[in-house]
Amino acid sequence: MMGQKQGVESGVEDIIMTGPSPFDFLPEDCISKIISFTSPRDACVAASVSKTFESAVKSDIVWEKFLPPEYSSLIPRSRAFSSKKELYFALCDYPVLIEEGKKSFWLEKASGKRCIMLSSKEVWITWGSSPQYWRWVSVPESRFEKIAELLSVCWFEIRAGMHTRYLSPGTRYSVYIVFKTEDGCPGLGDIPVEAGVGLVGQESSQKLIYFVGPSGRRRDRERRDVTRPKERGDGWMEAELGELYNESCCDDISVSVVETKSPYWKRGLIIQGFEFRPAKTQ
Description:
By secondary structure, the protein is an alpha+beta fold. 14% of the residues lie in helices and 34% in strands. Strands 3, 4, 5, 7, 8, 10, 14, 15 and 17 form a nine-stranded antiparallel β-sheet that branches.
């Protein structure tokens, strides 16, 4: 049985359930299977419908469907999980190192989509093996054991690649460079840097980014077509390099960050890695 109530402030009708839902008469495992074809966000909403739904949503049937096929290899040996739901949220909140610590993997909480960060050890850096230009350092707040620190270069060029099988199919991804700067990143922080993202064999998207951006008396030199970095919740900075669409997990990704036009020497940049996560607008 259903009743209706006129929404006074919003001017819309709010429909209120005054009797049992038809779904309440279905077997609980049947409800769980139905919910497993939705999304983690929808499952959490469904749990508020009724006690029956709340119980059905807790089932491993639901949350195993939201986990990646290889989830058993992602479970930390030092921790036991009481349910697939607990494991799911652990993989959302606590990224897991994979492939000998060169990649970091986690799930987007609302959708269950796969997210990846490539360590700076996994990318190609011009002069990256020359200790007078770059060095590899341990930073306590980094996910990785060693990351790249720029000491001094004139030619700044970083290129990364990854296969789309690490990402979720049918999903648009945003790609970010995750970093910190020291002393304003002299010679590089306030000048536009060229960034490119795309699939190998296809035209890449191109844009310009700042690692810091002009400040003080140089603020009037800032270009509106250059993306400024943003601070993350983990204390690092990130700059969006572009987007790509992963249709079927059968392609290779190409990413580049280059500044070779300025004659000035550049220093003061610490790069944790390149992050791939679902774009805000799909």
